[in-house]
Structures are given as C-alpha cells and as structure tokens.
Amino acid sequence: MSTLPQTVVRPEFEADDLATASHADVARKLTLWERIVDLDGVRKLTILVALMLAWEIYTRVSGVSEFILPKFSDTAAALYDSLVNDQLLIMIKNSISVLLTGYAIGLVIATLLTTVAIMTRFGSDILSTLTAMLNPLPAIALLPLALLWFGLGSSSVVFTLLHSVIWPVALNAHTGFMGVSETQRMVGRNYGLRGVMYVAKLLIPAAFPSILMGLKIGWAYAWRTLIAAELVFGGAIADTSGEQSGGLGWFVFANQMDMQIPYVFAGLFTVILVGVIVESLIFSTIEAKTIRRWGMQSS
C-alpha cells in the first residue's frame, strides 16, 4: 500500500528592510549610445557605411581593374560630379515622375479589381485567373508591344509599369481581405458597423498588413521595371521627347557606351539610394504608424 507524500511546510519569511531586497532592472534611463543604436535609420546607415568601406578596401587591396569594379571613392566623385555638373537630378526627377504616374494608375485599377473580387465570387474568379495568367509574365516583355501601341514615349513605359503594380497589389489586398477572421467580422457587425464604415473601420485595418506588403512589392517591381525599360529604350525615348527627358536607366546606359564605368556605378548606386530612401521614409513610416502601432507586428 503506497503512502501519500508528506506535506512540506516552509517557514515564513518576512523582509524587514525592503531597501535591501534584490530586484531586477525593471526600468532605467537609456544611455545616449543605446538610444542611438535603437534608431532604425542609424542601424541601416551603419550597414551601408560598412559595405562602402568593404568596397573601397577590396578595390584598393585586390588591384582589380576599374573597368570591372571602380573604387567607391571614384564612384562617389562621379556621383557628385553628375549631381552638380550633369543632369542626374533631372533624370532622377524624370524617372520618379514616370514611376508615380504608372504607380498611381496601377493602384486605381488594382483597387477596382480587388473591390469586385471581394464582392462577388465571379469577380474573385476573374482576379485569380488574370493573376495566374499575367503575374508570371515579366513586365519588361510587354515593352515591345507597348511601343507598337503607344509609340516611343513615356506612355509605353507607364503601360509597362501597370503590369508590375496591378497584380501584386490586387493579389495581396484580396488575400488580406479574405484572411479577416469570421470572429472579427461578427464583432464588427455586433458593434453596428455596416457598409462603408464596416469596410473602413474593420476590413481595411485587419487586412492592412497584406495591403501594405502589396504596395511595397508593387513599388519594387515598378522601380526595377522602369530602370530596365530605360536601359533598353531610354535613348530612343529621350531623343524623341527632348534633350532632358532621359531617366536613370538612360544615364547608366549612356555612360556604359562611353566606358565611363565610375559613372555607371554612380547611376546604379543612385538607383539603390532611391529605393532605400523610399523604403525608409515612406513605407517604414506608414508601417510604424499603423500595423506596429496597432500591435499587429513587432518592431
């Protein structure tokens, strides 16, 4: 016959002086270094600086030809010269202007497709079928067809950008709306949300992580498609539209033809910088003020 274990009675303990009690570091004032390191922009800038230093050190130590990989210092000098004495700023403006036009039109079309898709099953079938057909198709492959339809000009590039924006934005938004749980939907209806208020106060916030991801992917696809289009047809578009109508892709292509390799890398570096700036200043700010603030994503 088994016996039950005896109950152990622990002696009582009472702390007389709470000041001597040990305690954890619950809250303290952060040091200046900790506050600086905590900044997202500082951490990313540190990574960029480290990559630049590695680039400079490698090119100086390895002795690689400048026609293969120029020094970062030469690239930086070429970038400064292009910004001050050349038309690089105008070309950046031209590229971003075309990009914003295509991106805005693409968002409108994607919004319409998503609205129809979440309202009717037939609309959902249309979106899924078109996405399966057209999303795998590279956007740059449509540029020759666009040139036949719209001629040499920014309209052809804008048409090509639409293909890069519509499908990732519409697909991610539709996935986000369909992913809203039935529990959240019932809570919204119990609170009396109907119609536009139901969509604005419940569906959009709940689906916003997917919507924002679609916006970021659409921007990235459109940006690289624009640069590729300008690399291939930028010269023809510039010649027919005006002397100062070329974009960043045309800047890279023209300097490559002239064997100005530091300027080629300066153009590519500018493409990267624009992408980093848009990601850090626009999308990261939206992310911090929405889904992170709502507790839907960790910092």
Task: Give the arrangement of secondary structure elements.
Blueprint: H1 32-37, H2 40-62, H3 72-84, H4 88-119, H5 121-134, H6 143-150, H7 154-178, H8 182-190, H9 195-241, H10 248-257, H11 261-289
Explain what the structure shows.
The protein has a domain at 92-289: MetI-like (MetI-like fold, Orthogonal Bundle). Helices cover 72% and strands 0% of the residues. The chain contains 11 helices and no strands.
Task: Write a brief structural summary.
This protein has eleven helices and no strands. It is mainly α.
Uncertain runs: 239-244
- The CATH C-level name of the domain at 92-289 is Mainly Alpha
Order of helices and strands: HHHHHHHHHHH
Output the radius of gyration.
Answer: 28 Å
Mean pLDDT: 81
Give me some keywords for this one.
single chain; 299 residues; mainly alpha
